[in-house]
Design brief:
Helix content: 25-40%
Number of strands: 5
Structural class: alpha+beta
CATH superfamily: Histidine kinase-like ATPase, C-terminal domain
Number of helices: 3
Radius of gyration: 15 Å
CATH class: Alpha Beta
Strand content: 25-35%
Largest sheet: 5 strands, antiparallel
Distance between the termini: 23 Å
Amino acid sequence: MNPPQGRSVQLNIFSVPSHLPVVRGAIEKMCELLGFDVEASSGIVLSVDEALTNVIRHAYDSADDKGIEIELTPIGEPHVEALRIRIRDTGRVVDPEKIRSRDLKDIRPGGLGVHIIHECMDSVEYAPRQAGGTEMTMIKSIPTSS
């Protein structure tokens, strides 16, 4: 059974890395219900994991008592065409123009989360929240069979 269009699934977690597997499981299930193939589903799960890791490390300086909201929304009518994922934090606000991946020629561990997110998702936007923090919106279209 597909989730109703426009109906969001809301997840609220603390900035605890051990909560990330729960979110990954929810994303995997939503992707399965919407009909994403394994490759697209894996990319979406990885993108959300990287985004949440960045929130924990950079917006919250690894504090484990801060809230993160995740909203999963099937979009499109009359048939679901895409999944929109919004991640909201109340941490340090970063100018969206300064959110970048490091140079790919700089070979070393870490620092590729933003690059991975942009490679896996169709659309990625960052906006400061009036209440403080940042809202990240990612969209991935469901591939149509030809």
